[in-house]
Specification:
- By secondary structure, the protein is of the alpha+beta class.
- The chain contains 3 helices and 5 strands; from the N terminus they run H-E-E-H-E-E-E-H.
- A 5-stranded antiparallel sheet has the order 2-1-5-4-3, with helices on both faces.
- The longest helix is centred in the middle third of the chain and has 21 residues, at 51-71.
- The two termini are 19 Å apart.
C-alpha cells in the first residue's frame, strides 16, 4: 500500500510540474501520468483524461510485470513497454518511491528515446522527493 502520496499537496505539485517539463522536453509525448503502486492518480498531463481509471489499469500492469519477473526468477522488473500502431507506452517505477511513471509516445519517437526520456524524468521525480 502507498503512504498516501496522492494526498500530499507537495508531491502532487512536484509531479504536475515534472509532467509539464516532460511534455516540454519531447514533442512526441502525448500523455503522461504519475500514479501510486496501489492505483491512485497523483498527476497527469494532459489533465482531461480519466486519471483514476488509467491509474488503476497501469498499477495493475506494473504489479503483473513484477509477478512475472518474480515467477520466472529473473530479478526485479525494470520497465514495461506496450507497443501499438499509434504509439507506445513506457512505464517504470520512480526509484525509491511507491510511484510509477507511465508515458505514451507517438510513433515519432523510437522506443529507445521514449525509454530514455521516461527514465530521466522518473529519476528527476525521485530526486525531488529524496
Amino acid at each position: 500500500m502507498s503512504t498516501g502520496l496522492h494526498l500530499k499537496p507537495d508531491v502532487v505539485e512536484a509531479a504536475s510540474t515534472l509532467l509539464a517539463e516532460m511534455n516540454a522536453a519531447t514533442s512526441s509525448l502525448t500523455y503522461a501520468a504519475l500514479l501510486t503502486d496501489d492505483g491512485f492518480d497523483v498527476a497527469r498531463f494532459p489533465v482531461k483524461t480519466d486519471g483514476e481509471r488509467f491509474a488503476g489499469m497501469a498499477s495493475s500492469m506494473q504489479a503483473l510485470g513484477d509477478a512475472v519477473t518474480h515467477e520466472l526468477n529473473i530479478g526485479d522488473s525494470e520497465y514495461i513497454i506496450i507497443a501499438s500502431g499509434k504509439g507506445h507506452v513506457v512505464q517504470l517505477r520512480v526509484p525509491g518511491q511507491e510511484l510509477v511513471l507511465s508515458a505514451l509516445f507517438d510513433n515519432d519517437a523510437t522506443v529507445g528515446h521514449a525509454l530514455a526520456v521516461t527514465r530521466s524524468f522518473a529519476q528527476k521525480m525521485a530526486d525531488l522527493l529524496a
